Amino acid sequence: MQTFLSTYKNGVNFHVLPTTKYKLNTIVVTFHTDLEEGKAAMHAMIPHVLMRGTENHPTSESIQLALSDMYGATLTGGVSKKGERQLVEFLCKVVNEKYLNNSEQLLEKGIQLLSEVLFHPVQEAGGFKADFVEKEKEQHAKRIDSLLDDKIVYAAERCLEEMTKGERFSIPKLGRKSDLDTIDARNLFDTYQELMKTAPMHVYVVGNVEPERVMSLVQKYFPQDRTPKTNLLPAQTDVVPRQVKEVVDQLDVNQGKLNIGLRTKVTHSDESYPALVVYNGILGGFPHSKLFVNVREKASLAYYASSRLESYKGILYIQSGIQIEQYDKALQIIKQQLEEMKQGNLSDDELSFTKNGLINSFRTVQDSPEGLADLHTGGLVSGRQRTMEELIEAVLKVTKEEVIQIANQICLDTVYFLRDRKGVAAGA
């Protein structure tokens, strides 16, 4: 697989991947900023406010009509979180005109419309249109509330929030609902202007394109007076827990959610990162993993049991859904699996199956242009770029001894239990 051709000019980082693999051209624009209390909610709202109207397309319906005229192009915006960085992202997909029977310049039209949305919003009295902002505040409150509706997501977020209290990572990617009261059309517009002018900006284009033409189009339609920051803060990854934190939340639930947060002392940029990926796969990444087999299948204690990595922060967290009265037994068996890994009780089959599963999942990323852009973005955040081929090769070389070494440096940090309101589980 080819790698991105990257260059920097006039405050914009360009990353172009010419390929004939896709019939669509994919454009991803990402603004990097530090997670920050008070601003996270604003940054998360900005893409949605921008999608409500531009100077030339003053309503969301008008924007959608313009996209429809480009053979059903799509344009979306949102935010994500990698480590302690918040990313404001826009994704545009447009048909490659090379595969049409006319000479319509769809790539240029797509970049032009994206530019309008990003840099030429509807304004009113020196700020955003107040009606847009008020409606979007209502929608954003609903987005934040919706996390509570999905108890699996809610429990994971609460576990990580408690685990990293006092660290920037504890700030939710959507910000806090309590911050919405202070947001208005003017201060949100000021934050937007700061973001557009000073946040490091990366433009990805994937498709059957010529890099020189892509760069000329971006320079034609995107502003040339950006002064991006060069001092974004690195993630705090050296935290060592002094004692295990135990947290119990009580809500109207029938099924308990037992989540466990661990500090790995390894991040995406470290040499031992591939070994951590394999460790996580053996522990809880697949149906053959120890958590799934021992907690769910053999002991019949969990409706689900898995583990995930927050690799830009150096965190691993375990998720399980259990009967509330089985808390003690489930926690014991989960801890037992962690100990089994430390003792080196992992088979050659577990190692082999995990590597194969990881490689298959890595290869699916190569089928997605936005997945390739996201992989590159992760490299920017961590400070180390790895192509998918390099990651696959590194995973194949991971030894059993390296996995055991990872197992013995991981520290238990937080045990979080979401349960019903009837009482507090023994041991919780």
Secondary-structure blueprint:
Elements (H helix, E strand, L loop, with lengths): L4 E5 L2 E7 L5 E11 L5 H11 L9 H9 L5 E9 L2 E11 L10 H14 L3 E2 L2 E2 L1 H20 L1 H13 L21 H14 L2 E7 L3 H11 L23 E6 L5 E8 L9 H13 L4 H9 L3 E9 L4 E8 L4 H16 L5 H18 L3 H14 L5 H10 L2 H8 L3 E9 L9
Parallel strand pairs: 2-8, 9-13
Antiparallel strand pairs: 1-2, 3-5, 3-8, 4-5, 6-7, 10-12, 10-13, 11-12
Helix pairs in contact: 1-4, 3-7, 8-11, 8-14, 9-10, 10-14, 11-13
Molecular structure report:
This is EF-P 5-aminopentanol modification-associated protein YfmF. Residues 183-358 form the Peptidase M16 C-terminal domain. By secondary structure, the chain is an alpha+beta fold. The protein folds into two domains: 5-221, Metalloenzyme, LuxS/M16 peptidase-like (Cytochrome Bc1 Complex, Chain A, domain 1, 2-Layer Sandwich); 245-419, Metalloenzyme, LuxS/M16 peptidase-like (Cytochrome Bc1 Complex, Chain A, domain 1, 2-Layer Sandwich), CATH 3.30.830. It has 14 helices and 13 strands. The chain has helices at 40-50, 60-68, 106-119, 130-149, 151-163, 185-198, 211-221, 273-285, 290-298, 327-342, 348-365, 369-382, 388-397, 400-407, and strands at 5-9, 12-18, 24-34, 74-82, 85-95, 123-124, 127-128, 201-207, 245-250, 256-263, 302-310, 315-322, 411-419. The strands form three sheets. A six-stranded mixed beta sheet has the order 1-2-8-3-5-4, sandwiched between helices. It has a five-stranded mixed beta sheet with strand order 9-13-10-12-11, sandwiched between helices. A two-stranded antiparallel ribbon has the order 6-7. β6 (123-124) and β7 form a beta hairpin. The protein is globular and about 60 Å long.
